[in-house]
Amino acid sequence: MRPRRNSVVPVPEVPFDKMAGPHRVYAERDPIPHTAVTRHMAAAVHDRPHRLKQLKALSGRQQDKARRRRRLRRIPQLGQYAGEQLAYWALREVLFADKRPAPSYGFELAPVLTHCVAARRQRRLRVALLVAVVAVTSIRYPFGAAALVAVALLHMGLRGGRAGRILRWGTTSIVSFALLGGVVFAVYRLAGTYAPVLRQAVRQGERAALFCALGVIAVYVLDRWVAWAYVLAVRPGRAEIGDRPYAAPLAAKRIAAIKVTETWQTIAYQRYGDQDRFVGAGLPRSKGASRIRLKPAGADDGDDSLKAAEHGGSDGLRDFEADELMDNVRYQLERLREKLIETHSLPNCDVSEMFGVSESEWGKLPSAPAATWPEADDMIRDGRSAPSSAASRRYLAAQVISWEGHIVVTVFAHAALEGRTLHFVTRPHIMTPLMKDTTVAAPEGWADLAGHLLLVPLHAVGDAVELTHRAYQAVRSSLGLQRGGGEYRPPFDEGDDDEDKKPRSLREHCAPRDVKDMHQWEDVLRHISILQDWMFARVRVFLEEHGADLGEFDKQVTNVINNTIVNGDKNTVVSAASGGDTDQKTGPEKAPEESKVKG
């Protein structure tokens, strides 16, 4: 674990017009720890399809057809959450996007982007080698290559029942029979005239097919071995993970800039169903809120001013600012990361301050690296300005990272003080474990690794067959011999132009919608409960120290705690927030999967 940086960072002094002292510091985020999630995501972009499993599924599907089963077994394929599709999504939406990346919670973004660049470079090199193999085959065996192309085109033209239709047409009448016979006789005479050339083409065709097949298989064997080398480079035994790509100066410059902007503590919020969430922090849970009118302790609703006058400034309600309250809460939460005598400390507990902006403003924020965080002054001013009509606001973020980064719980808190009323709201967020496709890891033992490496040639044969099939279908589609042949289908999902400026999180892209593991879910609920309880408890102590009446506050906090219901069947939490803020979130949730070994 790297040493923790200073918990607060000084910022330039800003003007203030109240008696409260200036708030010149903000709580900084801790360095992102090396976690298993970083290694899994970096390895996932080098994943390859498991051809042996596909062959087994294909044979099983044939058995299903023979037994006339309604549901055929699924053939495993790499989806958009692994392999080159994931790498290209990250390059398009994060690395080369004209916007600031969303904050990374529970993993390091730079090593993952570095491996995405490596996966793109490896794909380009593989394509170049495959083109070179085809070119060398065509130059060395020109007649053989032409024969292979002719046979493929003839097969495309006659497949799909066309040969049977031609024969049936030739037997419908004497005229059609004569025409068909004439065509066959002409082809026979032409073949007899060029018999030496055809014999040479047939001999070269056999050699060309063998040479090209061996060359393509060799390229795929090399490609898979290189992919295995990248996966082994991020195995748990490696202390450091590379975060700077080679032979890619533009990408290296962008990654260096992202490493700077990733430390900036601005986060965007967006509407998610019937709730609001912060992009990058995961899925929202129901918020907890309290809204009380400030009055001196012991005062009735109608005589709080009189009570304050009778007791004087020292005995009545004392003035305070919202940022003073949040500082008190932050200092109390930082105790959870210390060594505790009674219990264990919270794992990887980080307390920082974030500046929340709307997703519509996210694309307007500067993304070029600067000496200081551009929004630092704005966040400091927000602590002493009126909360109404403030488009961007300051939040206290308490975060717990557990399960090696697979579970990240973040509770955002905000305090608004206006019109003798204090509104304190907490917004819990949960980052769920990685999907099964993205959870890629190297084999644990050398024997398992050797077994996987020895199976690479068999997988490469499957890659060559898949390439031949895709090339055949592409040519057939371009010639209009297949239904929907003129339709363009991009190899990877393409984003909407209207969504280009909105924030994107690579971690959220690879996460399911919910947690199914019982122990993980218990940890999630416990961490949310601990963080929220400590926040509300410190607010209560702060109000008591400043002479405020706590009757209404205690009722609302009790209501928040009592309305936190754990549904064991669906693993959902329903929180009813007091003071008119009530949110519920239920629904089916997807289960995280165990780690898989790269095939």
Largest beta-sheet details: 8 strands, mixed
Unreliable residue runs: 1-22, 308-314, 484-495, 565-595
Strand tally = 14
Please tally the helical runs, counting DSSP H or I stretches of 4 or more residues.
18
Coarse shape: elongated
Q: Provide the helix percentage.
A: 40-55%
Strand content: 5-15%
- Average predicted confidence as pLDDT: 77
Cα radius of gyration in angstroms: 32 Å
What structural class is derived from the secondary structure elements? alpha+beta
Notes on the protein architecture:
Helix content is 47%, strand content 13%. With 599 residues, the protein is of the alpha+beta class. Among the domains are: 8-31 and 265-364 and 371-437 and 511-597, no CATH class; 141-210, no CATH class. The strands form 4 sheets. Strands 3, 4, 5, 6, 7, 8, 9 and 10 form an 8-stranded mixed β-sheet that branches. The protein has a two-stranded antiparallel sheet with strand order 1-2. A two-stranded parallel sheet has the order 11-14. A hairpin with a 4-residue loop joins strand 8 and strand 9.
State the gist of this model.
The protein has 599 residues and is of the alpha+beta class.
Core attributes:
single chain; 599 residues; alpha+beta; eight-stranded mixed beta sheet; two-stranded antiparallel sheet; 18 helices; 47% helix; disordered N terminus
